[in-house]
Give the backbone structure.
Amino acid sequence: IPGLAELGVPADASNRVVAAGRGDDVAMTTIASRQAEPVVVRRISEQVQSDSALMLRLKNIGIQPGREITLAASDDGVRVTGENGAGDLEAELLPLRVAAHVFVAKL
C-alpha cells in the first residue's frame, strides 16, 4: 500500500492526516448532515481504490487523505465541496455507495 508521499499528497495535508488521526474516523454517510460541515479526509477504502476512474474523480473534487472538504447530506448521497488541484472549489454529489467508503474526521 503506497504511503501518502508516494501518492503525491503534500506535506501539509499529511500533517492534517496525522492530526485528524487523533480522532475517530467515520464514513461520510455516517457523519454527513443536512447542514454543511467541514471535515478532513482520513482514508479511502480499498474497495474504492481499485477503481482508477473513480479515484481520479475523487481527486478532482479534493477527496484525498489530509484534505479538508465540506459535507452535506442529501436524499441521493453526500454533497462534497473541496478544492481541486488548481485551487478552485468543486462540488459534487457522491452516491451513497461511494461515500460509504470514504472515511473522514471532524475538524
